[in-house]
Structures are given as C-alpha cells and as structure tokens.
C-alpha cells in the first residue's frame, strides 16, 4: 500500500513537472521565436466558439497588429477587460504574460461567463524583432527619422503629448514623435480602444520591469477624481500577487511612483477614452545597476512571474464581474 502511494506521488510530481516545463517551452516558442500570430491562429481554430481574431492595423514594417477577443456570448453587452503588451520592444516579459493570460482564459470558461476579454499580446512587433536580432535594449518602434530610427509609442498618445523636453529629440529613447499619433501602432491601438470603450471597464498595459501597479496620472502628481477607487483596486491586485510567492508590487499614480511622463496609453485611455480604471502594470525584473539585465528575467523564473500575476488579474476580473457583470 505504501509503495503504491509512493508511486502515485512520484507520478503526480513528474506529471506536474512535465506540465510546468511544457508551459515554459510554450512561452519561449511563442515569444522568443516570434510565433505569436501562429499561436493565435491555432487558438482560433481550436476554440472557434469563444475566440475571435481581429487584425486592427499594420506596423511601420507592415506586420499585423492583432487582438484576440475571448467571449462566450452576451451579444456584445458584457463588460470588457482590455489588455495590451509589448509596446516597448525590450520588455519581453509583457508578451509572455499576455500569452499566459490568453492560455488560461481559453482553458477556463469560468472567467468568461459574465465578462469579455480583448488582448493585444504584441503592439510593437517591429521593435520586438529588432531587439531579438540586433539590439537587446531597443525600446521604440522602427519608423524612420532624419538621423535616428524609432518613436517611443508610449509617449505618442494624444493626451498631454510631449510635455517634457527630453522627449523632443528623435535619437532619444523616449522620443515622443513629430506629432501625436504619428505612428501607425499607437494610432491603431487608440482606434480599437475607442471602438470598445463603451464597455471596457478596465484597461491594463503590461510593461516591465519596475514591479509596480500604476494608475493616472503620469503627466502630473495629482490623481484623478476616482483616485481612491483606483488605489483600492490596485492594492487588492497587489495583495493577490503577494499571496502567491510574497512578491511585492508597489501601488500608486505613475508620476508619484516612477516619474513624470506624458502621452502614455494609460493616461489617454482614462482622459480621452473615458475608461475609469486604467493601469500600467510594470512586471517584475532583475534588480541590477546594469540596464540590460533588468529586462532579462531568468527562464526558470518566467512561470513564477506570469502565474503569480495572473492571480492579480483574477482579482481584477472578480471586481469587474461583481460590479458590472452581465
């Protein structure tokens, strides 16, 4: 009897480890080998009743910008959670997190009963490929300038645009562009956000690696009129993550936690699209004085990082479902 139990426990452990390493392999295949489009198409074929793909624009180098809508029905009346990732090329954990969320949603219909999801797993495919092949620290898109390439897409939104002079030079890593929405990627995201804004109850933009949950504003240290709600929900989000592996995420407005910044998708979603729960989620990274290392989370830590974050995402879902669920 004891021997049989021992074999069962060993078999269970081996099975769990196999699933774990398969997931790590999936994240690396999907994210590192740039097979996101193929993976989304595979999901669409496998889960045709719940998954829809929407190509909502093209990048500077004519790559598809694709959103995946995950829903079990509701005639487009249900509240919607909108998530994007990969606006900054070098922040590889963002797309991995988005893929993990998508995978969990299609395999767990409980999270789809009263809430719809729209996820853009990679907003900056050109920069993302470039930083895999040429420059690991590349941040911007790949638009051509007079002397330097690229615009910081998360400074290019038409809300308090270019309020800081350090964004004005095209060779700057945070160049805001020649004018608001000069870039096809940021413009396309704004259009799809407006298309779904009437039922989007929460907007989340996944970044790394400041390990923070940030709400508006970025351009000023003041907070919006629903600042207390934004903070309370972010604190619950942070607590849910902490319960998994004791990982602490800072909570607060972007300007107060990090620095003053304007023209961001988060502030635009709140200030223009009127999405009252708007967050930038800075995923965990590596503590290092060397910039490159901050974004290079060890492969063996990826599963821990994305799975604990998903517990926080589930907390946001519970809030939206309880308050707005259809």
TrEMBL record:
Annotated GO MF terms: metallocarboxypeptidase activity; zinc ion binding
Transmembrane segments: 20-40
Keywords: Carboxypeptidase, Hydrolase, Membrane, Metal-binding, Metalloprotease, Protease, Signal, Transmembrane, Transmembrane helix, Zinc
Record-linked Pfam families: Peptidase_M14 (PF00246)
Gene Ontology CC terms, in alphabetical order: extracellular space
Active site: 282
SMART domains: Zn_pept
Keyword flag Transmembrane: yes
Listed GO biological process terms: proteolysis
Cofactor requirement: Zn(2+)
Domain Peptidase M14 positions: 29-320
Family (UniProt): Belongs to the peptidase M14 family.
Record's protein name: Peptidase M14 domain-containing protein
UniProt organism field: Pyrocoelia pectoralis
